[in-house]
User: Fold this.
Amino acid sequence: MKNLYQMLRVGRQLPALGLKSFLAVGVLSFVTLQSQDVWAKGYMYQQGTVVSGNVKDEEGAAMPGVNILEKGTTNGTVSDANGDYRLNVLSPNAILVFSFVGAETKEVAVGEQTQISVSLTSSLSTLAELVVVGYGTQKKSDVTGAVSSLKSENFNQGVVTNPGQLLQGKVSGVNVTTTSGEPGAAQNVIIRGMGSFRSGTQPLYVIDGFLLDNSTQGLDTNPLNFLNPSDIESMDVLKDASAAAIYGARAANGVVVITTKRGKSGKTEMNASVSTGWSSLSNKIKVFSADEFRMQVPAEGGTLYDGGGNTDWQKELTQTGLSKKFDFNMSGATSEKFSYYASVGLQDQEGILKNSDLKRYSGKLNMNQKAINGRLNIDYNLTASHTENLRPSINSTISDMLSLNPTIPAYTNGSPTLLPTNALNPLQRNNLFSDKALNNRILASIAPSIELFNGLVYKLNLGVDYSSTNRDQQYKPFPAVVNENNVSQGTLSTSINSNTNKLVENTLNYNWHKSVHSLNVLAGHSYQSFLIENRTFAYSGFANNNIEPKYQDQTSSAVYPTTVTADATKNELQSFFGRVNYTYDEKYLFTATLRADGSSKFGANKKYGSFPSVALGWNIAKEDFMATSGIDNLKLRASWGKTGNQEIPAKLSQASYSEDRLITGAQSLNTYPLDPSATAIGGYPYGIVYTRLANPDLQWEASEQIDVGLDFAFFNNRLSGTVDYFNKQSSNILAKVTPPDPVSNSDVTWTNAKNMKIHNNGIELGLDYNGNAGSNFSYTIGGNVTYIKNKVTDSPYTVLTTGAAQGSGQTGATINGYINNQPIGAFYMFQFDGIGADGLNKFRDVSGNGSIGDNDRTVVGSAIPKFIYAYHLNFKYKNFDLGINFNGVAGNKIYNHTAMTLFTKAQLSKSNNTTDFAVQYPEESTTNANTVSTRYLESGSFLRLNNATLSYNLTSDKVGLSNIFRNARLSLTGQNLFVITNYTGFDPEINTGSAISEVQTFGIDYFTYPKARTFLISLNVTF
Assistant:
């Protein structure tokens, strides 16, 4: 009673919840109090003996979902998420039957016992595995949606800084693309194709029941870098609408549920692991050597500047990056009532570009406490991290690596050589420039739950995710260079960012089991608030005293003014949700889900949206007629559902205004003089103008999906797999457009594009085979392949640009975009047809009108791959094991913007380096324009040996040191060992184009940070 009263007080102390949320908390708490009293009174009059206990597997892990039945009756129950159960036994001679799919059934006579805990031995079946779904777990055999589960032992190995890397190539239908080779680089995780053209295409991440926000944390790198991969127990990907609909408005891009490690009863242990890795540039671009350069420049009519050197700028500006990682954790249970998991970690990863590294200090604490004979259960989760991210000037460095004159010596008299154009030597830039961000993040939650009466559990989940980032980008003064912006006087830009994400959820979960019937009912309410605050201070004009600008004083002046910008955004999301799971005789499965979300992001007329789903399953292998078939598992699944996407900036449904006034030397049509005879600026007061029109009908993007799947297993579960067909259609596409009315207060409005649809349909196939040859050798062979067809239909726009060119003379030129009846990221450009007699580009006259114009641009491919595939080979011989993982894509293109910008004959004639791409047409003029065309479009298909790990396991009993340690594992891992591709850039797995008007770009390689090849030695010791 006291604990529940305190929970209610917590709800009263959260005014941000609003009236509806507070009432929901109050009602559920009242139900809790009343139900507890009913249970207490009813229990006094129950007959028989109350038996309780815990069910574990053979490794000591809790087993939820185990059926406990009084033999010969329909009286039974199901073990909860912690493996605990409680049953009122009616007969004095009762026998309890413990059964679980994939485990050996166990019978125990009750007698005089009131506490019975058992351990069930698993069979070879994988159907007994638990899959984490929204707000709970299910046996794999009972799942009706498309859910892929990945356990920690199957994660990708090597230098891993964020959870997305663990998934790459492991799950069908999931395309994980690292945008660059930078330590901790952002990743695009695309589940079953792109359903939106905005940047909000990432899945929803849920960590231990806490729903993260994908907003930037003040860093340009991955927002999940705060989480130590060593703390993760499993990752479950909810792919179809049935599995994801419980998360409603944020589930259109799928959901990734991350479960961290916990203590296990009866298994107390400590683990220490240490690793060291070496990373180097995996692929150099073959630019001209100094001798080749000396021949090529005069041959193209250029004036050679020969500095007398022989410099490999790719070698000078890269390094062998050293990575170090240390993790220590301890876990266990002091009793049946308390378990714990605690860890600390340090990761220090140097990049292959100088002045590039990522350091993370992390801590993790998970605890579970039980009381009231196991009816009260409290989970505590705490994750804390401090991340330091140092970044070089990437675009400038990559440009210099590839284009600097190789005859210029890197150093003169021990100092970086001053370039002949009085520009900044990139080696000197590394001494002057720094971009360092410090991030502190805490994710904390407490989740008390209580069994009100047999089968009904109330749970309160309270959590907060707080992140704070300070970022300094600075140039030390360097007066020797006068023709690069502000380098001579020094600059400093300081950004302060904080994100606060608060969550409160109330759920009721009822489990009922009788004979062949099993029912689970979930009902809940959720309230989540997000506050994002940013401030940026920009300074210039610092003393050249070898002190970093961030540690100097600076006084704002007319010559060197200080500028300050600031903004704050608050969003709120309130949700009501429910789900029903029914199983008959473990053969026939039914799931129905409904979630209603209300968001402050959307218009006054469209605040709430409803997201339903329904799914059916049939365990065919359990039918009597399949008893002698030899088929271990055959389950047919079918689902339909609707999910939403609300990932747009806040306040877009509201009108926006700004101040405007006449500026000296410019004209303005927005302000007028109060005095018609005014001749000074003072006569022109500030005016208020629209910058965005209001749209009270702005609403969610909606994704409707159909899925049909088949799960199967043969040969005593040695061969298992799954195949799915899915058809996903996204509508109400959010777009930033020009108002159709030519007379408008603003040139911008946000709307849901009428009738526009984005279609994704395809087939996923996953297969695994487990075999052995004798008692000492075993192996696993498996893989997955996904075919996805993507198309945009009924778009009101001829071309909605997603990627545009950058640089002199090309800024804004369309590279790819959204075009009717074409896939997302369709490349739309001229078809290069060689060099004409005049030395200039020739393009194909598609229209046939005798001239080249906009109507000759066509779709020439897509940035989105049609095929995603991966396969793995795992071998184990005695104490040795070897794991090899490949992954690849096919059917996509890459636009080599780096080549378009740098590898031209014009650049070579100016004594800048290039590749032989620039001289492949001897007749080409040095004045030829580098127009956006298929000349720079290349195949993006590749096959990569992603990682390979060779390990040796040493058990303590073999060396007589069982009193010191249990097991030691020594591993050698290679990452990115080779790539088979026709792409001529650093690496085909890229995406570094610039977003246009908040529209995401795809498949553009613009000065991309190269990928590394890494070798890693690791030692893990268990005590």
